[in-house]
Amino acid sequence: MKKLWRRISGFLGLKRNVLLLFGLIILIMTGEKMWERFIPKYLEGLGSGILIISGWGFMQNFLASFWSLPGGFIADRIGNKKSFLIFNLMAIGGYVIAIVFTSWIAVFVGLIFFSAWNAIAFPASASMITKSLGPGKTAMGLSMQSITRRFPMMIGPVLGGILINTYGLIDGIRVTFGVSIVLCSIGLLFQRKMTNDVVKDHEKINPYLLWKKFDPRLKNLLLSDILIRFSEQIPYVFVVIWCIDNLKVHPEQFGFLTAIEMITAALIYIPVASFSDKLERKPFIVVTFFFFTIFPVFLFYSSSYWLLVAAFVIRGLKEFGEPTRKAMIMDLSVKNAEARCFGLYYFIRDFVVSFAAFGGGFLWELGPGYNFWAASALGLAGTIYFLFFGKGTEKVIKTA
């Protein structure tokens, strides 16, 4: 049995620190996903208009970009373990604010703090996985991380939908915030058990100089990724409103749709990763961008629950090459500055894309069709650009 476990864990990249990281992710994200996709409906219930709801999407992306930059620099400077601790405590503070004050302003203020967790988790966890497993297992490690993230994404919305149906929209969301505090607190125990990562060769470098050191292939990927995230974020906050208000889907049913999306993603991660670490990464990313592109239009024409199921399967398939894309970022990052490169990449991407999320509100007021078709058009532009101008990482993988 021990030999079998060593084989399986070796193939999947399940080392001690990585396993503890995955446990931490499950705890934090289960709480987060209980409320995240219902927040637009929650804001609507508090009397917020379309522009405030679209402002929520803007703030999510803007704060993700804001925290990604210092997050990556902090992770490289003080280590991943200490970084997780700082941002976990900040998340707890944000939830307290959102519970105590029942208003859309409190939710936005709380977001400043609990958005920090995901922002630090990206650069710090990607750096930890790369350092623990090496370049030959980067895509597999990031795929296992993505699978781990899908478990809370599956069960969180279902539990959140049940709590909303039980306690009502306003009180149900506040209960989910309370559950998030409990799970964050348990997560502190997982962080304590992580071994300290050694911080070495820390070159002081400002973001501008780091950008100048970016590999041209990474800059090409970034431009394509920005267009693709425009496609995702323009309709993102309105998906739950479209399903519940226009298609008369119950919150629990929407939770199950989200679970279907995450199950689909989880099923494709391991087989894709096993090939991605051996083959050129570019084709996997192109396929991913294609699914991003077609989801908004398919959702728009989904006139029944079963068509919605198909739409959310497509939404799950957009994760086909996401770990591959993240592995490509790590492949092309500046040596000994991986977390900072990852953080700067996400800072630029999410800062630009945050305005797309806000602009989606204006398109929604013109009509849902304008919103969905504009999103798909931008996705098509990003896919075509990367198909013709994007470069892969074949040389990097061979020399690693």
Condensed summary:
Helices cover 84% and strands 0% of the residues.
Notes on the structure:
Helix content is 84%, strand content 0%. It is built from 18 helices and no strands. The protein has helices at 2-12, 16-35, 39-45, 50-78, 80-100, 104-133, 138-167, 169-193, 207-212, 216-236, 239-246, 251-276, 282-300, 305-317, 322-332, 338-366, 368-389, 394-399. Helix 7 packs antiparallel against helix 8. 54% of the residues are buried. Residues 395-400 have low confidence and may be disordered.
Order of helices and strands: HHHHHHHHHHHHHHHHHH
Percent of residues in helices comes to over 70%
CATH topology type: Growth Hormone, Chain: A
| Contiguous runs where pLDDT drops below 50 for at least 5 residues | 395-400
What is the gyration radius calculated from CA atoms? 20 Å
**How many strands, which pairing sense, and closed or not: the largest β-sheet?**
none
Q: Beta fraction of the residues?
A: under 5%
The structural class is mainly alpha
Key descriptive features of the protein:
mainly alpha, disordered C terminus, Growth Hormone, Chain: A, 400 residues, single chain, 18 helices
How are the elements arranged and paired?
Blueprint: H1 2-12, H2 16-35, H3 39-45, H4 50-78, H5 80-100, H6 104-133, H7 138-167, H8 169-193, H9 207-212, H10 216-236, H11 239-246, H12 251-276, H13 282-300, H14 305-317, H15 322-332, H16 338-366, H17 368-389, H18 394-399
Helix pairs in contact: 2-6, 2-7, 2-8, 4-5, 4-6, 4-16, 5-6, 5-8, 6-16, 7-8, 7-12, 7-15, 10-13, 10-16, 10-17, 12-14, 13-14, 13-17, 16-17
